[in-house]
Amino acid sequence: MAASAAATASPGLLSPSYAVVCSFLERYGALLDLPELTFPQLERCLRDTSSVPKLLVDLHMKLLRKIGKSVSAERWEKHLVKYLCECQFDDNVKFKTAINEEDPDKMRLQPIGRDKDGQMYWFQLDQDNNVRVYLEELDDLDGSSWKCIVRTRHDLAQVLALLKTQIDPELLAKEKDAADGEEKKDGVSDGVKKSEEFTTDEEGDPKDPSSSIKTESSETQPPKDDTKSNVTE
């Protein structure tokens, strides 16, 4: 009878990991000030697939806070995912074997730079070219200052423009002066070009030599000689 009841239990509840959890809670739960859960309560929480019971949420939050992770009831699952990712380095033998060939310096994401206040900037780009930039203050030990400051390319352009003024205010002034100089130069060139076109229209088309030749011949042609007509008469 007991064997048949156990057979109907969820497969996860029959795993050694579940027994380890139960043993840990029984022996160290009070020391860690964890929520008191009986075996049936824990089993019901783990069987519930429609929602996450509050008792299970409280248990995860307590365990995360005990290792220095300050989390809220709305964010505990995100921290759990991070923990499970980090566990791959210790408990996934195949994964550990594969990454042992990698350069240790490339295994952890490094900041792309710091600003004048020592704040660090972290850049990420996915396979669809979606960009994220994160900011972290200097000497932040608990991640409380961590925030996402760029989610679009427009955000990125704004951050870059702001950093230019903070790191080297003179750089922005020089770029503005150079841009203004180019605009003035273009304006002068356009004025000269228009003046030349106006002069050309008055004097004739320089591309048509006949226009200037015709003008010169008409101006230098001598007056008509009427002597012959007078002698004949």
Briefly characterize the structure:
The protein is of the alpha+beta class.
The number of E-state strands comes to: 4
Helical content (DSSP H or I, runs of 4+): 55-70%
Structural category is: alpha+beta
Name the strands of the widest sheet in spatial order. 1-2-3-4
Distance between the termini: 156 Å
Radius of gyration equals 41 Å
Which residues form runs of ≥5 with pLDDT under 50? 1-9, 209-220, 227-233
How would you describe the overall organization of this protein?
- The protein is of the alpha+beta class and 233 residues long.
- Helix content is 58%, strand content 8%.
- Strands 1-2-3-4 form a four-stranded antiparallel sheet.
- The protein is elongated.
Helices and strands in order:
Layout: H1 2-7, H2 16-28, H3 39-47, H4 54-66, H5 76-91, H6 93-99, H7 104-107, E1 113-114, E2 120-125, E3 131-136, E4 147-150, H8 153-167, H9 169-203, H10 209-220, H11 227-232
Key words describing this protein structure:
233 residues; alpha+beta; four-stranded antiparallel beta sheet; 11 helices; elongated; disordered N terminus; disordered C terminus
